[in-house]
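Subject: Sanity check before I submit

Could someone independently write out the structure tokens for this chain? I want to compare against mine line by line before I put it in a report. The sequence has 416 residues.
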Amino acid sequence: MRDLNRILRLAMWTMRSRPVLFALIIAFSAGCFAASRFPAAGTVAGQSLSTTVDSELARFYVEHHLRGDGSDSAHAQVIDSSLREVKPDPYDRESLKQLSQRLSIDFAAIYFASALYERPNNKRAQDAFHAILKTLTDPAGDPTPPKGHSSYLVVFVPGYAYKKDPTTGADFARQREILRQRGFRTTLIETDELGTVEKNADIVADSVRQFAGQGQKVILVSTSKGGPEVALALGDRLSLEDSAYVKAWISVGGLLRGSPYADHALRWPRRWFAEIILRIQGLRPSIIRNLSTTVRRPVFDHLRLPRHILTLQYVGVPLSGQIGKSVRGRYETLRPLGPNDGLTLLVDELVPGGVVVTDIGLDHYYRDPIIELKTIALAYLVLGEVEQREKGPRGTETCESRPNKGLNLTGSLRSP
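---
Independent answer below. Compare away.
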């Protein structure tokens, strides 16, 4: 009875606050949050870092090893031997999990971001993104959009419960307004905010067909649950002819291969508790299974994504010293599985053949005072590349998405 009262009190509290996906069941997270104790400062993936990390090895990796400074030979030897034996790959969830268990989760997260940044296409994109962002935030900078921007329709695909709680930003309202102020044409695909990935993929596909019929050149932008919906639409629901007018897809924190936290919530007796709370809030319990990795991974790994579409993934990479209270329980629950953003594994956000921009310190909810400007910077970045591509021949062949192990980035992104 005491547990039931606790559940009901939690439900009442969440009904008065943000109905963020799965925040309803934080009370059932296992384990305690491990405090970070080692101050670390340096540069990771072209980004300045100053926080605390969860191990001395992670601190040494940031402050010395990444700079090629092996002054502490004992730490350097442990790191080098671990990397040789594990052979971690930023596209392989199992090797990142092993690296987390062998060294620490912060070490694995830093490795993830650094290894992606070493790939030329990602480095150019990352550096260009920060250059554009600097221009947008500098009063003396020139915020002029890329040439030809008004000829594209920027189409936003929202996240879960975007109407029930617009304060989450899942409806992209601020981003759409800022882009409109800069002369962009934008629209929002009104998906079923509580619907399944499959139902919303049909809605996205129908909308894309309408845009194609109007001759609209489209850039898709999705967040969270909108990510697998766009992926399913592009990789299964649409023909090559239908998707020919889609020039790019920006996935922000996409739950492309589902959420291990959904898997966690499906275990008995958590599933029973979670369903009670979701029903009390007027939400649909079926969403938990629909977003589980057992459902989403097989679907995503068999999609055929059109090669002509430039895909860019914007991935938040939080370290343990940067996790907020509202995300700690979920982050800690997923810790045994490797680097995560509090709702999904970082590796599961990546698209084969895509370009990756990481943001050290942000979790799945992308709470950042300048997140709107960062989204604009991503739009500018992608538009600049699409304009370059439009000057050459347009390819229409497809490539098959394969399980995320040993994949190479093959995009052609260039710095503006």
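---
OP: Matches mine. For the report I'm noting this point. The beta strands are 38-44, 47-53, 152-157, 185-188, 217-223, 246-252, 304-306, 310-317, 355-360, 398-400.
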